[in-house]
Amino acid sequence: MEEIELICDEKDIRLDAWLTGRLQKFSRSYVQQLINENKVLVNGKNTRSNYKMRLKDQVLVTIPDPQTLDVKAEKIDFEVLYEDDDIIVVNKPRGMVVHPAAGNYSGTLVNALMDYCGDELSDINGVIRPGIVHRIDKDTSGVLVIAKNNQAHERLSEKLKEHDIKRIYAAVVEGVIREQSGKIDAPIGRHPVDRKKMAVNTKAGRRAVTYFKVLERYKDSTYIELQLETGRTHQIRVHMSYIGHPLVGDEVYGRKSGSHGLHGQALHARVLGFVHPATGRYMEFESELPLYFQNLLKVLRENYGQQ
After folding, report:
1. Residues 52 and 174 placed together within one structural domain of the fold
2. Are residues 257 and 269 in the same domain?
3. Contact at 8 Å (CB) between 260 and 248?
4. Which of 63, 92, 109 lies at the terminal end of a domain, its last residue?
5. CA–centroid distance for 162 within its chain
């Protein structure tokens, strides 16, 4: 553990911005994390990142010892769509967890990335999620971008916060959607009763916006394209369930048993577009529908036809 004592020589500047300028070996995100974890005291008191500094404020920063990553690198094949010195774009298969958590400390994308990249992954999100800028659920397949360094991570995270990353999904939902397109603008937060689930929560939720467009209609289901404006946990699954059209196979927010033989939602992150964090060039990647998704559409078309 390291303690750093500082005296403020500026005023009317945010604590996180001022401290980042003084601790140049750490990213702003890491500084904010220290503040949120009460490891930064201003005049002996805990405070927030947006605290406006005053001349001669006394700041004490506690830098914890680095954690040892107890997650092991594993040789697991995964598809790389693009790679350079700053980022890796991957096509995550259905059934793979993105990062380790209780009950899943092996077989994750992070385990595979650690073997593939070695130490070339950002550490902003901590030792359990090296390189992980954004996530998709275990049973959601598709495109993800991974950061190899903290600068790339921060710039991509800022784009996510500014809703400046293009994310288009393909999904099959229960029931027939009559509208050709629509917008769902409903805040998402923790479910008030089941804390393992998310829900539309008008009191404690954060703004969440999803756009959908119908591609094909069948007898009792609809093939749709979705575009995210925001990126809340389980956003598409919660929003589609909220309007009465849960994703086919979604056993958490939809039917309790597998639909059309699926166990896990029919959801695929098909397109990811963003400005490269180092070059400033716009890049866009597309992943073909996985075989299970293609087979589902084939069955629906053959058995029910398009409506």
Report:
1. no
2. yes
3. yes
4. 63
5. 14
86 given a catalytic annotation: no
The verdict on 72 and 179 lying in the same domain is no
Cα 87–Cα 92–Cα 98 angle in degrees, nearest 5: 80
> Across-strand partners of 79?
91
* Torsion, Cα of 190, 251, 272, 28 (10° steps): 30
- Which of 57, 137, 139, 250 is an active site residue? 137
SS3 84: coil
Place of tokens 């800022």: 158
Nearest to 172 by CA among 234, 254, 265: 265
Other beta carbons within 10 angstroms of residue 175's beta carbon come to 15
How many domains in the chain? 3
**What is the spatial distance between Cα 252 and Cα 104, in angstroms, rounded to a whole number?**
19
Three-state SS sequence of 253-268:
CCCCCCCCCCCCCCEE
pLDDT in tens, the chain (307 residues): 789 999 999 889 999 889 988 886 677 777 888 999 999 999 999 999 999 999 999 999 998 876 655 678 899 999 999 999 999 999 999 999 998 876 677 899 999 999 999 888 988 776 677 889 999 999 999 999 999 999 999 899 889 888 899 999 999 999 999 999 999 999 998 888 887 899 999 887 889 999 999 999 999 999 999 999 999 989 999 999 999 999 999 999 997 655 788 889 999 999 999 999 999 999 999 999 999 999 999 999 988 777 7
CA 154 to chain centre: 14
For tokens 């098909």, name the residue: 270
Distance between CA atoms of residues 229 and 231, nearest Å: 7
**Residue 170 main-chain phi, psi, to 5 deg:** -110, 140
Q: What CA–CA distance (Å, rounded) separates 27 from 17?
A: 10
Q: Which domain holds residue 125?
A: 67-162
